[in-house]
Amino acid sequence: MTDKTVLSMKYIPVAYLLLALPSLTGCVSPNGSEGPRPVTRIDWIDLHVMPTAVNLDDVPGPDGLRAQVFLYQLARPEPVTVDGTLEMLLYEGNIPAASLDKHEPFHVWRFGATELRGMLIRKLGLWGYSMELRWGRRAPTAGAVTLEARYSRPGGETIHSVPSAIPLGTR
Fold this sequence. Notes:
Shape: globular
CATH class: Mainly Beta
Number of domains: 1
CATH superfamily: Macroglobulin (MG2) domain
Oligomer: single chain
Structural class: alpha+beta
CATH architecture: Sandwich
Strand content: 25-35%
CATH topology: Immunoglobulin-like
Number of strands: 9
Order of helices and strands: HHEEEEHEEEEE
Number of helices: 3
Largest sheet: 5 strands, antiparallel
């Protein structure tokens, strides 16, 4: 084998990865018409949030968070889409999960089934929801915030994610 042959063989996996990348990240139509049939019952919420607040507008400074939520039924190996209400609860400070019920949320964002369809994503072949959580003019004053996802199924049962603490920097 020549050096040129070895070099080209070395990059074949990279070429396959680049070809497969669009199918791994997936695409969804803006109206959320793709994806699996929504369910009402879930057993687990997996919350992913960027590790810091982000600037989501043209005004300098952080004004929100970016989060992704994946919901699961224990009987299924992949995340499911839902037909209930998903709430994102933001608390000021780094609050342990056991103490969250003793605190009032600083902000609550509520997303019904129709809104969630517009947030549907497919990441590495898995269905979930991606959202920007803007707090607007009422910004947290603490050095950290805690974010929790809560799913309410039609009929009243609620499931909570493990909360995530996000530092906001020095204030």
